[in-house]
Every structure is written in structure tokens, then in C-alpha cells.
Fold this protein.
Amino acid sequence: MHDGTIRDLAFMEGPESGGAILISAGAGDCNIYTTDCQRGQGLHALSGHTGHILALYTWSGWMIASGSQDKTVRFWDLRVPSCVRVVGTTFHGTGSAVASVAVDPSGRLLATGQEDSSCMLYDIRGGRMVQSYHPHSSDVRSVRFSPGAHYLLTGSYDMKIKVTDLQGDLTKQLPIMVVGEHKDKVIQCRWHTQDLSFLSSSADRTVTLWTYNG
């Protein structure tokens, strides 16, 4: 299995076993490993990234998105199982390591958080970048869509938590609001599954519950 630091984990219902599948990835061999949780058996080793994998996201029951220090996002289909698309971050300049990934509930839009303080919005079905913008002044370590995908929540090493309003034209300048701040780096942010409250964790050793009023 892994021969380096595990950087992210995710669970999903497996298309093969019908039970829970553990997805894990990180440093070392830069592979993504899938494990059948009921039987405790490894299923697949997904290879392709050439840098440490920093982030995982699962959706649709069989799809995985992975972000890596190799400056790419890869989409994996567990029904195959293999990589079905590679999305680069070098649309402008030299690109950047991808520290966080998320897909909206419809499965149409990918969001990335990158180490150069940028976020990218990518049209999955159209196969094109919609926009790249800089909501923060340091690494963006967490990106998550709100339950209705009206907002994108981002957390950064600049200690701030921000919300980007996605309800307008995504190709235009997007409204961004600071909705929280910690005393040290923000590590993760997660929306509530049904409303606009969210949790954040930080290197300041706190976890905070916030409410966003829109």
C-alpha cells in the first residue's frame, strides 16, 4: 500500500462491492489506493500523478477527483478503473500545486484551491476552464460548494475564510466576501449539508462554527 505520508482520505459506495470504499492518497509512490471496507482488502492502485497527491473528492458513486503537486487535477472512474481526464493549471503562467478540489452537486463544475493563492473553476462537461481568480493572499487549502452550489467556501493559509458568490456570470469578476478569520492558518472548511452554516479548523488549534447570511 502507501510508502509515504497519507495526505487525504475519502469514502464512497463502491460500484463493485456495493459497500463502503476507502480512497486514500498522498506522498511516496503518488498512487491512489482503494480499499473494500467490509472485507479489508485492497482493490485498486491508481497511478498517473507525478507529484504528491494533496486532495481527494468523490461524487456520483464512482468518480474521484485528485489534486497534486504536479499541478494537475485528475478524474478517475472506478468502473474502469483508470484516469479519464487530466486538467492542468497552466492556463496562465506556470501553474501551481493543487491543494484542494471539490465538485458541485450537479457534477458539472470543478473548483480547485491552489498553492499560489488562486482558485480555478472548470466546466467538467464542456471540458474548459471558466475562470481562474485569486481570492486569497496565500495557499488555498480548502474549497467547498454550498448545498445549492450558489456559493464557494474557501479557506487559506492567510488565516481568512471567504465566500465567492457563484450566482451570476461565472466568466465575469465574482463577488467575494470575508466571512471568518482565524489566528493562524486555515486548514479545512466544510458547509453544513442543508443550510449555510459551516465549520473551519485552523493551526490555531480551534474548530469554529460560523453562520453565513448570504
Summary: The chain has a mean pLDDT of 93. The longest strand covers residues 6-13. DSSP finds no helices and 19 strands in the chain.
